[in-house]
Structure formats: structure tokens, C-alpha cells
Amino acid sequence: MDTPNTVASNEANYLKIIDYNLVRPFEQGPHIPTTTTPDGEVPKAVADYDDADKRMFSEDNKAFGFLSVCLSKEIALTLRDFTNGKTLWDALVNKFKGNLEMRNSRKGMLKGEFNMFNYVQEETIASLISRFETLITKINSAGIEYDQIEINDKH
């Protein structure tokens, strides 16, 4: 995940499969229909929503609901104050991605795990390969770059 304001590509691709329009609420936030009055732009009354406003309102609610039902009860309780998909998504990213110090620490641990990676006694080849692929996936997700030669040397 690049920034808290960007839906990571895997998540965005999954959302596009479910409903392409679910990505917008996570990236741009909820659509707030407005109208121009002598006092300037003001939110529209729900009764004044046109078809586009209704569609976007529905998408906002669907996106929030989709994300909400995916959360475990324990996590949902810690995030109950968030009322739209974007703020909930950003909170989840911040909660699980961690601050810069935490991310750097995680990268250091993953680099150490990569450098120490070795066969475990009585481990099957399938298990060894699976463990290595899992480690490479974690490394890639953390933004650590190894060239293919380094990876092949470990494999």
C-alpha cells in the first residue's frame, strides 16, 4: 500500500471484480451532492438528489458496508467511529501498516529472515519452497527490493 489515501492494487482489483464503482469511495471519499445558492455551495437535501447523486450515494454506502462486514468483531469495535469507506480504509491502513519506525523495523526483520533463510531439518522440499515464496511475498509487500540473482542464490 503506497499511502493511506490509495487503495492498494490487489484490493482495488478485487473491488473492481465485485463492482468497479466501489473503488471511488475509498480513493475519493463520500460524494456529497451540493447545490448553488446565493450563500454559495451547500449540501443538497436528499429529496433533491438526481439519479447520479443517488447512484453515488448508493456506491458510498455499498463500499462502506462491504468493508465493514469483512472486519472481525474485535477490529470493528476499535474502528466503530468511522462512518464512510474512505475514513475506515485509511484507519485500517494506518492501523496495520504502522508508522515509519515500525515499517523500517519490519523491513529489517524481513531482511534478516531472508539472509538467515535455510533448510529446516526433516522439512519437505514443498514446505521449503512454500516458506520461501511466503517470505518473498512479505518482502515484496514491504517494498524491499532484491534483484533476481540474490533471490535465485537463496533459492
Task: Please tell me the total number of domains.
Answer: 2
Order of strands across the main sheet: 1-2
Structural class, judged by helices and strands?
mainly alpha
Terminal residue distance: 27 Å
How would a textbook summarize the main sheet? 2 strands, antiparallel
Helix segment tally:
8
Shape: elongated
Tell me the radius of gyration: 22 Å
Based on DSSP secondary structure assignment, what is the total number of beta strands?
Answer: 2
Strand share of the residues? 5-15%
Share of helix among residues?
Answer: 55-70%
Task: List the helices and strands in order.
Answer: HHEEHHHHHH
Write the layout of secondary structure elements.
Elements lengths: L8 H11 L3 H6 L5 E4 L2 E4 L7 H19 L3 H6 L6 H13 L2 H17 L8 H17 L6 H7 L1
Antiparallel strand pairs: 1-2
Helix pairs in contact: 3-5, 6-7
Overview of the molecule:
The protein is mainly alpha-helical and 155 residues long. It folds into 2 domains: 9-97, no CATH class; 100-154, no CATH class. Helix content is 62%, strand content 5%. The chain has 8 helices and 2 strands. It has helices at 9-19, 23-28, 51-69, 73-78, 85-97, 100-116, 125-141, 148-154; strands spanning 34-37, 40-43. Strands 1-2 form a two-stranded antiparallel sheet. Helix 6 packs antiparallel against helix 7. The longest helix is centred in the middle third of the chain and has 19 residues, at 51-69. The protein is elongated, with a radius of gyration of 22 Å. It starts with 8 loop residues before the first helix and ends with a helix.
